[in-house]
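Quick one: structure for this chain?
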Amino acid sequence: MNNPSRRTFFKTAGLALSSAALLDAVDGIKTQAGDPPLTLGMASYTFRKFNLDETIAMTKRLGLKRIALKSFHLPLDATPDQIRETVQKVNDAGLVLYGGGVIYMKNEDQVHQAFDYAKAAGMNVIIGVPNHDLLDLVENKTKEYDILLAIHNHGPGDKVYPSPRSVYEKVRDRDPRMGLCMDIGHTQRLGLDPGKEFVKYKDRVFDLHLKDVTSPTPEGKTIEIGRGVIDIPKFIKTLIKHHYKGTAALEFEKDAKDPLPGAAESIGYLRGVMATP
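Got it. Here's what it folds into:
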């Protein structure tokens, strides 16, 4: 796709490099004041075909410090000892295990399991999809455990939480620890502008899944960030303008068996955008 902002970025950032070179990119981009304008992270679903050790190693190669683990890498039925071992591996690698998910909650047992799991792992946020009839119980658990619940929207075809609005309408009058994990790809696939959606619901956006898609329709597929139809520079600037403080996690669903080059290109592009006034 001939995206002018993308061409400008590659020229400015000097990224006429191979994907392999991008893997050793600078750890982060900072503002002139020295503070990172956004906190980037990794949704480990990106590395769903790889084990925990490989996932940690690739996340480190991308220069990221924060990770949310999917059950591929920390099973929901893990024992306390297994959870401690996993957390120790993440910590020893210099990473922060800030969250877990996406975690589906279709019955009361799964709600209790999700919160016990998150508490044992020291997670700050559960990226979850609780059934509507379980929201009262979920609200009680967020209060009891003091853990954020960020409900993930899954776009066209999802009958539970397709859009950011569908989440917001369910949580806006509930405990302030209940909010959204806004997936900007699925949001765009609904024909919605992710930036405008973020601004509408920003008071409850606790987590973000960053990606790009090939078209603003249900048929859109994940592609390297900057190659698709989402106006990424505009979206990033919107987050910065509104002082978003959560994690903006890459969820790269393309090339499941070889995701690292595309993930590196995507992170490199995001860093270039963040560094461009």
